[in-house]
Amino acid sequence: MKHKILLMGFLSFYFFNYGQSLEKIFLKNPSFEGKPFQSQTPVGWYDCSFMGESGADTHPNKFWGVNRNAQHGKTYIGMVARLNGTYESIYQKLKRPLVANQQYKFSISLCTSPVYNSGMNIRTYLEKGILDFKRSDTTYSFTTPVLLRIIGGRKDCKMLQLLAESPLIDNYDWKKFVFTFTPIENYDHFYLQAFYKDDKTPCNGNILLDNASTIEPIVSK
């Protein structure tokens, strides 16, 4: 009788978690709606920037020369990667976690702005390994194609697994990109990050994001 109760408890736990893993995960504010402002993310999204650097922006308001209309709604997110080895990321805590070994599908609209002019910190290391920042008086062009990384992780900008990445984004009109990925652990934080072709070739580039989908489990046939 005891073994039967334990088995029933195990099966209940298994099917509960299996059912949870097959539910769609709805993002908060997937259209990135908010007040256009520099280094400010819309409600539901948080910035995870490098120390001493500016964060992701809510567009459009013509700052940096960006003048693209939103693909959905009124506003969207802009992020950059920089020649000094830094890049911008945003994230949110999910309503339910990504489940280990479950395959998911996710889509988002992406493009790049043909004009993106901004300053950049010159980052140097002083004695004893102390990092120093000095804002350059020069305005740089951030138009080299970069890509989007999708990362699973936990709180406090703890990014643990690269789940998927786009090709280099060089299209000036909005285009929908679809991704599939399988986490190897449970992750309750979902990160979107601008990045270079690889970590050996930093560059100045921008990427615009709009109209994210739900994160949908793929059911095995």
Detailed description of the structure:
9% of the residues lie in helices and 38% in strands. The protein is mostly beta strands and 221 residues long. Strands 2, 3, 5, 12, 14 and 15 form a six-stranded antiparallel beta sheet that branches. Strands 1-4-13-10-11 form a five-stranded antiparallel beta sheet, with no helix packed on it. The chain has a two-stranded antiparallel ribbon with strand order 6-9. It has one helix spanning 2-21; strands at 46-47, 57-59, 76-81, 89-98, 104-111, 117-118, 121-125, 131-135, 140-141, 147-154, 158-165, 175-181, 187-195, 205-210, 216-217.
- Major sheet attributes: 6 strands, antiparallel
Q: What's the assembly state of these chains?
A: single chain
> What's the N-to-C terminus distance?
35 Å
- Estimated radius of gyration: 20 Å
Shape: globular
SS elements, strand count: 15
User: Per DSSP, what share of the residues sits in E-state strands of 2 or more residues?
Assistant: 35-45%
Helix content: under 10%
Alpha plus pi helix count: 1
Low-confidence region ranges: 9-18
List SSEs in N-to-C order: HEEEEEEEEEEEEEEE
Structural descriptors:
single chain, 221 residues, mainly beta, 6-stranded antiparallel beta sheet, 5-stranded antiparallel beta sheet, 1 helix, globular
Brief overview, please?
The protein has 221 residues and is mainly beta. The chain has one helix spanning 2-21; strands spanning 46-47, 57-59, 76-81, 89-98, 104-111, 117-118, 121-125, 131-135, 140-141, 147-154, 158-165, 175-181, 187-195, 205-210, 216-217.
